[in-house]
## 1
Amino acid sequence: MNREARIFVAGHRGMVGSAIVRRLQKEGFKNLHTRTRQELDLMDRTAVRAFFENVRPDYVVDAAARVGGIAANFEKPVEFLIENLTIQNNVIQAAADFGVTKLLFLGSSCIYPKLAPQPLCEEALLTGPLEPTNDAYAIAKIAGIKLCQAYAREYGKNFISGMPTNLYGPNDNFDLHTSHVLPALIRKVHEAKRAGSKDVSVWGSGTPRREFLHVDDLAEACFFLLENYNSPEIVNIGCGEDVSIRELAEIICDVLGYEGEIVFDASKPDGTPRKLMNVGRLLASGWKPRIGLQDGIRDTYEWFLKTC
Ligand code: GFB
C-alpha cells in the first residue's frame, strides 16, 4: 500500500477503529480520514455518500458498529440489527459507487452457528442455527459479509471480510451493563478490591469458553489483510487458544492482586458454550498474535486506571 493512500477508518473512536488508526500511523500512513459521529452520521445515507464523493478514499476499513456484551445484545436486538445493517450498507455501497480500491469489513465470531464444531472454521458459516443471545448482531454481520461477497462477484470489487474473535484492550467499554466479559470483570475486580469486598460476582456458570485477542494484535492482522489478502472468502482472526470464564476471572484476580472469592450468578445467561476460532487460514499466510492474555489484561488495566 502506498503510504500516501487516502484511508477512511469508519468507527475510529471505538476500541477497534482507534487501534487500527494507531497501527496505520505507526506504519507511516499520513492520509488518514476519520469523522466523529457529530461530523458524519454513518446512519445518514446522503451524508455518507457526500463524504465519499468529496474525500474519495482509496481504502476503507469498516470498524463502525453498534457492539456490546451478552446483555446489551439480548436487550436491544432491534437497535443491533437496524444500526449495523444501515451503517454497513451505507459504507459498503458508497465505497463501491465512489471507486474505493479495497474495503475491509469486520464481522465477529458470533456469525457461526451456536453448536458448530470447534475450533470454528470459516466453512461453518450458515451451517446451523445461531446463538439466540446475539442473533440480531450476527445476522447483521452475515448480511455485511454477503454484501461484500456480492460486490466482489457481481462488480469485481476487492471487498474483504475479517472475523475477529472476542476482543479487548484500550478504549474498551467498561460499563457493567453493556460491556463484554473481560472489561466487566476488570471493573468488578478493581471495585471489589478497592471496597475490600470478600467476593466478586461473575455471570453464568463460569464454564463457557472464550478466546480473547488484544485489539493491537487485531489491528496488526487488519493491516496484514489490507496489504496481502485479496479474496472475498472470510478470514478468522484470533489467537487459537481459549479459556473458561472461571479461568478468565482467576487470571484477572491474579493480575489485579485481588484475593477474594469468585461467585457465579446463575440467573445470568451463559450464551454460546464455546467460541474458539480456527485461525489456520490467517496463520498460514504469515500473521501471528504477539500479546499474551496476562500481558494484555495488564495493559488494559493500566489504561482503565488512567482513563476510567
Ligand atoms: O463477553 P460476553 O458478554 O459475550 O460474555 P459473548 C461472555 C461470557 O462471559 C458469557 C460471561 O458466558 C457471560 O455470561 N460473563 C460473566 C459476563 N460475567 C460477566 C459480566 O460481568 N459481563 C458480561 N458481559 N459477561 C458476545 C456477543 O457474546 O461476543 C457479541 O454478544 C459479540 O455479539 C461478542 O459477538 C464477540 O462472548 O457471549
## 2
Amino acid sequence: MKIEEEARDIAEFYSFLRIETPLLEAAELYERGIGEETDVVQKEMYTLRTKGSGKLALRPEYTAAIMRSYLQHGMHRLPQPQRLYSFGPVFRHDRPQAGRYRQFYQFNLEILGGDSDAIYDAQVIIAFYKLIEELKVKPLIIQINSIGCRICRPNYRKKLVEYYRDEEICRDCERRLKVNPIRLLDCKKEVCQTAKAGVPNIFDSLCSLCRGHLKQVLEYLEEANLPYVLNHLLARGLDYYSRTVFEIFLEEAIPAGRQGNLALAGGGRYDYLAEVLGGRPTPAVGGALGVQRLIEILQTSGTAIPLRTSKPKVFLVHIGNDAKKKSLSLMEELRRANISTSNALGKDSLSAQLEAANKMGVPLALILGQREVYEGSVIIRDMENGVQEPIPMRNMVEEIKKRLRG
Ligand code: HAM
C-alpha cells in the first residue's frame, strides 16, 4: 500500500521506531486516558465483557495504549525522548458516512519523554504535513491553538463557565461544562455555534510559559514554510491535551459535501497523560492521520496513487521439479544479495516463463534445468539480445551484479 510505504519512510526519516499495541485492551485505559466524558468513550468505543467479568475495548486510538506501554516497559530508561510510530486499524462506533468509518487506519506518531521542547510539537506537525504533501494532496492548512497548562487553564475554565452560564447550549455541552468546559469550544451542534460567537479568547488567558511555547511552535512552522492559522476555538475531542493542539485540513473542502471540513490529521501535546495513567510525569506530543480520509480525497480529486514497485531485475526460470525446488534457495540467495527477483513457480513450461520474463521487461533471466542443478551451474540469459551462457552457481550473485552495473 503506497500510503503505508510513504508513512513508513517519513517516520523512519524522522527517526521514529515502530510500535504495535494490542487491538484489545482494558476499557479502563481509554476511559481514564481519553476521558470518561468524551464522545470517543461515551459513544464510539466498542467494548465487550470477558468471561472473567473484565471489560475490554477495541482500540479507538493509539495514544493511551502507547503511553501505557512506555510506562509499563520502563521506556524512560532508554534515550529520551522516544519516538514511536504505528500504522494500523482503530475502531469507533461512528455513524458511517463519507470520512467517518467504524474501522479505519491511523498513521500515528508520538514523541514521549525528555522535555516539552516546542521543536517536538513542530516536528510531529511537519511530518504529517510532509506525508500528505508527498501524496500530492494540496493545498493544506494547519489549524493550531494552545489550550494552556495546569497553571493557566483553571483560570480560563472559570471564564468559560461564567460565559456559558447565560448561553443556550446542547445537552452534551451542559454535561461537558461541568467536567471539561474547554471541550465546548469545538462542539459542532448548531445551537452551540451561536453561543460561541462571543466566547472569551484563550490566548488572553495563557500564562507566559504557554504563550512562549506556542510562539516557538509557530516560529518553527514558519521556518519550515508551512501555512497555519491560529484558531482559538480548536480544542479537540480528547481530554488528555495540554498546550499545543493542531489539525490539518485540505484548504478548499472537496465539493459536494464529501470530506467537508473533516481533519486529515490531528493531535497535540499531552504532558499529563502519564500521570493520569499512574506513571511518572512524562512530557509527550503526537498526532494521528486518518488514512481513509486521505484515500477518499485522492479518489475524489482523481489523483492517482503511483505504485512504487521496485521493478525486478532478474527472472528465475525453472525446468523440471528439481530445478523448481532449487529455485527456492536461489531466490533466497538473491534476496540476501538485495537483487530484486521475480519468477513464475506455478508455471512449468519454459516458453510461458520466458514470456512472463519478457513482459516484465527484466534485463536478465536465470535458467535452471535438471542438468544445471546436477552440475551446480545456472544459465544466465541477456533478455535484450537472447545470448545465454552457463555460469557456476557460486558466481551467480557476482555475475548478476557485474552485468547490472555494466
Ligand atoms: P483523532 O482526531 O481522534 O485523534 O483522530 C485522528 C485522525 O483520525 C482524524 O484527524 C481523522 O483523520 C481520523 N479519524 C478519526 N475518526 C475517524 C473515523 N470515524 N473515520 C475515519 N477517520 C477518522 C486521535 O486519535 C489522537 N490519538 C491523535 C493523537 C496522537 N494525539 C496525540 N497523539
